[in-house]
Amino acid sequence: MIVKTEREKSASEPTGPVPISREEDPNPRHPTPDSMTENDTASTTDAQHMDEEKIKADLPLELWIWGGMTFTEDSMPNVCFYIRVCKYASRLELRERFGASSRIMKVLKFEDLRNYSLRSSLVNNTANHFVAYVHINPRNENSAPITLKFSKDCKLEDYEFLLSSLRSICHVDSDEARDVHV
């Protein structure tokens, strides 16, 4: 039997932070829909599913402007962009999906959102269609403004989840656009 000394054990272990791939969930207790297989999906209990619904939402985007970067859903064929609200990780992620793979493009932590003001706009055209925007503006000059226009595929309850998350953190502009029903 070979017994390693403490020095040999520590020499064989990696030092420093272990890099996390862009696709790894920072909290493995909560699998993302992107990382779940059919078997994982089938074995997920209703309680786990409800827990997942409370902590995360994916909102597809038609347009996003983040600082100097601007994309529309037509600017890159077969690529879709969406905002992921991660309550468990306390952050917003701007993600890009191409086929079955996705990657994080930008991250904004909830604690950093305290330095932003929020303006939102929602227009209900019909029972199943609405146009929604969110403008997140920095309150100092060191940060970039963010404008999000949500896709027609966005669910109203996900949009409301995003707004409630942001309103609990950001300063809400007094001239915030009110919801309009047409």
Automatic annotation (TrEMBL):
It comes from the Eukaryota. Residues 34-47 have a biased composition (Polar residues). Residues 1-48 are annotated as: Disordered. Residues 1-11, 21-32 have a biased composition (Basic and acidic residues). This is Uncharacterized protein. The lineage of its organism: Eukaryota, Fungi, Dikarya, Basidiomycota, Agaricomycotina.
